[in-house]
What does this fold into?
Amino acid sequence: AFSSVSFLLGFLIVFRTSQAYTRFWDGCAALCQMQGEWFDVSSCLIAFCKRSKVDEDSIEKFQATLVRLVSLLNGCILMDLSTGFAADEQPADRAFELELIDAEALDEESLTTFYEANQKVELIFQWIQGLVVEACNDHLFSVAPPIVSRVFQELADGMVHYHQALKIAKMPLPFPYVQSMELLLVLHWIITPPLMCMWVTSPLWTGILTFVQVF
It folds into this structure.
């Protein structure tokens, strides 16, 4: 019986470790892909303004606003993912604790709306999409509209990667599985010392074997 419990417990621990390792790298991959999408979006939109016939001030205002919003979006996402399973916290409120790119230069009305919003990531994402649409309407881009549509696809892909990382950060391992493993750990911890005392006569080896089995 003791061998069966030890085998089952070892199997569950190895399985849980494997799942944790997989979740860790899946989360890292989703986060890196998301940030790559944000960079590609920013780079493409700034490049699209090359050779534009619109005045230079309008182009600089668009590019500066874009960079600030993308930086703020990334900061909100990182803070949102940092809380893990703590559902009561509003981590995006602390996005300005990170090193952002001149996010404080956004207009006062936008900052007020940002602080009052519950879904800050989605709000900033919508602002970026609206900013791109307005730039298209003002003819800021020197490329054809079908090429600009690639930006919206990359924005959507970035949000998909964000939600994949959010799923890992917010969804714990199944409760019955965790409780079953903890129960087996407690049971193993209780029965190991008496069994070691029965099987080994030396107190030193009893302590060593118990330590190896339990820890």
Q: What stands out?
A: The radius of gyration is 27 Å.
